[in-house]
Amino acid sequence: MVPKNPDFEKFLAMLIETTGQVEDTYFQVQTASENESWGMYKERVYCYELYHQLRNLRSDSGPYVLMGEIDKHRHKFISGGVVPDFVFHVPGNMDDNLVVMEVKRIDNNEKEKIEVDCKKLRKFVEEYAYKGAIYLVFGDEDGQIDKFREIASQNLNGLKNGTFVLLWHKHAYERAGKELRL
Description:
Layout: H1 6-19, H2 24-27, E1 29-32, E2 37-40, H3 43-57, E3 65-68, E4 86-89, E5 97-105, H4 111-126, E6 132-138, H5 144-156, E7 163-169, E8 177-181
Parallel strand pairs: 5-6, 6-7
Antiparallel strand pairs: 1-2, 3-4, 4-5, 7-8
Helix pairs in contact: 1-3, 4-5
């Protein structure tokens, strides 16, 4: 197992604290129809609120900058046109890449999509020197986190250069919990 990186651990703690501040309005968007309304998990809405909360909470993050959905197309070192949901890094410096993060709704649980996210996270840690990868799943559906845990474990076990953490944020106003650490 890779030794713990203090900056990664600090970001992880901040992220977990921040998830507890995501309000229900952004966690599960109310959708209207003719006869009723119901809540739907919307990844982009959740991510925008998470970004907002992280920026508000961020105190002393040193040289690191939080960026959401940063497009890596035409990047000199990162190939494949990948767009991670979040990175926490020092822009313009490949030596200070701290965190890459993917976010997924719990009901967006097709095996192929989870595997694509896991491969992206692995690539950022192993090839682009990110100190850690976080897969944040939000929402609550019985038994579905098991699928994320199993696929992530299969695809991210044995990282040589960094840490992987699977977080599950079940409910608005509650902090995410660690489901898996590799």
